[in-house]
């Protein structure tokens, strides 16, 4: 039986043939868009020049606020600086790897990527310390901290990433994370809430339990300068109308919007189409447009999907973080760390473990 997360499970007629394997983090032009698209994806070059105007010329208020720290942090956008993890799997691998495995690890270790908070690695009593350390790291980099909260009870419905906390402990763990974030008010943060939780709920039959758990996590994690995205599946899973229904069941008050393509491989163009469809449906259903923005995972989208979700061969890293965006999609982010396995499939180790072969394959074009 095809796993419901498989991009092939509900893939449209355009499928694999409509995608190319040429997208890498070196791209400076947008992916091929479908002819029906009337919007434009905003792209940036690798660096953003800061223009200093002398001789009495005016400097914009937003620029002054950014220089002197007097304004609230802006929402994530093209050009946002996300933190680079000092202790990522790639960074750790780079201390012992050799040859192409070292080149791949070094490349990935330098990329802004989200940190996944899980109770297995950061349990109650340690999660707050981890967030405090990550906030200090982001502060030193003058960066936005990017986090994934991934500890929901019955997580992943028994699949490769099964685990999570029990019902009583989950809010305790989330509150510890929230307290650490509140103690670092100067560090802006992006938080992706529980990947796959809603999209899997219909298959797992636990939507009634999921909704209050997710709602309580959102309520606990809200703070000024934190931008929360509730996971919204991806373009080859549920139709946009169904995913909208699931998101609306939780309610998007207090969130910036929804994340898409987390840990998946769909091309950025497909995810932009999907994000717009979900956002349009949310707004049509009464959700305020301020709560219907998207954050897209492009960590492994460079070759598009081949119909598999678990360690598919031949994939590539996608567009670098904070290089894409438009009026609905705030920006893109490497949410799934490339080089970490999806699970014991296609030759890979357990989910979340560093896999040098995957790192080498994913970066083969970007390292040229």
CATH H-level superfamily: 1, 4-beta cellobiohydrolase
Fraction of residues in helix: 25-40%
Q: What is the fold named in CATH at topology level?
A: TIM Barrel
Stretches where pLDDT is under 50 for at least 5 consecutive residues are 1-70
Sheet bearing the most strands, described?
7 strands, parallel
The overall strand count is 9
* Name of the top-level CATH class: Alpha Beta
Number of domains: 1
Radius of gyration: 20 Å
Shape: globular
Helix and strand string, N-terminal first? EHHHEHEHEHHEHEHEEEH
Quick recap:
Helix content is 30%, strand content 10%.
Describe the structure.
Residues 1-37 are annotated as: Disordered. The active site is at 156, 196 (proton donor), 342 (proton acceptor). Pfam families: Glyco_hydro_6. This protein has 368 residues and is α/β, with parallel strands linked by helices. The protein has one domain (20-362): Alpha-Beta Barrel (TIM Barrel), CATH 3.20.20.40. Helices cover 30% and strands 10% of the residues. The protein has 10 helices and 9 strands. The protein has helices at residues 61-68, 89-93, 99-109, 127-140, 169-182, 197-204, 207-221, 240-250, 268-284, 356-362, and strands at 42-43, 115-117, 145-149, 189-193, 226-231, 257-260, 293-297, 324-325, 329-333. The strands form 2 sheets. The protein has a 7-stranded parallel sheet. A two-stranded antiparallel sheet has the order 1-8. β3 (145-149), α5 and β4 form a beta-alpha-beta unit. α4 (127-140) runs parallel beside α5 (169-182), α5 runs parallel beside α7 and α8 packs across α9 (268-284). It is globular, with a radius of gyration of 20 Å. 48% of the residues are buried. The model is unreliable at 1-70 (pLDDT under 50).
């Amino acid at each position: 039986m095809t796993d419901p997360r498989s991009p092939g499970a509900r893939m449209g007629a355009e499928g694999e043939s409509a995608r190319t394997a040429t997208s890498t983090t070196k791209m400076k032009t947008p992916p091929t868009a479908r002819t029906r698209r009337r919007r434009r994806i905003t792209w940036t070059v690798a660096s953003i020049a800061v223009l200093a105007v002398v001789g009495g010329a005016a400097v914009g208020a937003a620029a002054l606020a950014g220089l002197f720290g007097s304004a609230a942090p802006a929402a994530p956008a093209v050009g946002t600086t996300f933190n680079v993890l000092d202790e990522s799997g790639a960074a750790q691998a780079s201390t012992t790897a050799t040859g192409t495995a070292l080149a791949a690890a070094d490349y990935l270790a330098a990329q802004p990527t989200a940190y996944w908070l899980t109770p297995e690695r950061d349990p109650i009593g340690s999660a707050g310390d981890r967030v405090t350390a990550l906030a200090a790291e982001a502060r030193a980099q003058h960066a936005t901290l990017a986090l994934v909260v991934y500890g929901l009870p019955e997580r992943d419905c028994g699949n490769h990433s099964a685990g999570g906390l029990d019902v009583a402990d989950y809010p305790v763990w989330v509150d510890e994370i929230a307290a650490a974030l509140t103690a670092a008010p100067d560090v802006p943060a992006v938080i992706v809430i529980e990947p796959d939780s809603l999209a899997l709920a219909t298959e797992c039959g636990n939507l009634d339990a999921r909704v209050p758990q997710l709602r309580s996590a959102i309520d606990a994690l809200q703070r000024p300068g934190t931008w929360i995205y509730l996971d919204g599946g991806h373009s080859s899973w549920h139709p946009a109308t169904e995913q909208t229904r699931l998101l609306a069941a939780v309610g998007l008050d207090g969130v910036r919007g929804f994340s898409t393509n987390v840990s998946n491989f769909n091309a950025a163009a497909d995810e932009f189409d999907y994000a717009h469809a979900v956002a349009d449906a949310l707004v049509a259903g009464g959700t305020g447009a301020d709560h219907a923005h998207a954050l897209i995972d492009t960590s492994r989208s460079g070759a598009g999907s081949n119909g598999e979700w678990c360690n598919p061969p031949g994939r590539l890293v996608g567009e670098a973080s904070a290089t894409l965006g438009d009026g609905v999609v705030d920006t893109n982010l490497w949410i799934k760390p490339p080089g970490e396995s999806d699970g014991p499939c296609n030759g890979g180790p357990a989910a979340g473990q560093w896999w040098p072969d995957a790192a080498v394959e994913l970066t083969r074009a970007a390292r040229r």
